[in-house]
Protein 1
Amino acid sequence: QVQLVESGGGLVQPGGSLRLSCAGTGSIFQLNAMGWYRQAPGKQRELVATIARGGSTNYTGSVQGRFTISRDNDKNTVYLQMNSLKPEDTAVYYCHGAVVQLKRDDSGFYYYSTDDYWGQGTQVTVSS
């Protein structure tokens, strides 16, 4: 059973910092592209940042220069360092990933399968 487990959310004052973690657990061969999304109350889920397995990154404009996404492939973990937090960063943050598993079909043939997984979400609240 594969899971993406997030941690690190909480309440922080404006200007403060938080570090989110997303750990892949279960029968994972490797994690490919990973990303962080967020959803504020009454709004649609939006992409925050992505990171390829090789380390190339992309950010949405509102977090550029304040947030840093990184990963540890040996630990199947991705991080989101959030600095200079603003009240408008308040949201539930979700980890998303392309998880590669080694599976076996009914004929006994082994193959690699890539599937999308979401974490359960972690609340980030920026307020004084």
Protein 2
Amino acid sequence: QVQVVESGGGLVQAGGSLRLSCAASGRTFSRYAMGWFRQAPGKERDFVAAVTRSDDTKYYADFVQGRFTISRDNSKNTVYLQMNSLKPEDTAVYYCAASAKNLYGRSSNFDPVWYDYWGQGTQVTVAS
């Protein structure tokens, strides 16, 4: 079992940057694929980015368009989401999630049900 805690959200102007962090508990962090999702008010929780257990493959939602970068540091039990060129439509609560199943590039891998453990979320607000 793993617990994850997000941090790094806040208010930023359009065009600005934020780096979200997700710290995981436990000694088996490297056994989990990690993902970021986001949820805006009144909308479903959407996939943003994910990284495999060994950090060899990363996946991104189309709307990221090269603006976001996911990374992980297994020595620190942490996964990051670097967000650049932020837009007002990026405003949402961002969630970190861990999956005991690895990622294989299938559509199911980007569905929230693929993930077993979730953080409480961190608010990102992008002002126009």
Protein 3
Amino acid sequence: EVQLQASGGGLVQPGGSLTLSCAASGFTLDGYIVGWFRQAPGKEREGVSCIDNKDHNDYYADSVKGRFTISSDNTKKMLYLQMKDLKPEDTAVYYCAADQGNPYVWYGSHCLLMRSLEIWGQGTQVTVSS
């Protein structure tokens, strides 16, 4: 079965750090667009960070640039999101996701705008509060 399993969320104080992990099973991340998305209560899901499968660059939402770092380990079939200097507005359910994309399309930073990715993890809650 093809699936993603996210973990690592929790309660952290403002200014603190967390690292989210996402384990892939049934497929390898190599060749997929991969990313982290989040949804806060009452808000739409938004792209946080993603890695394009053609240029292999990582992209970030303006709100997290300089604070979050995405990485993937294809041999371990793992995706990570290192988060530092967390703010209350980072509170949300975080989802990892993967998609093969259109082979004729270079998504680049537009991977942040993707919403109908093929594979989604179940979400992990991040709460930033004192």
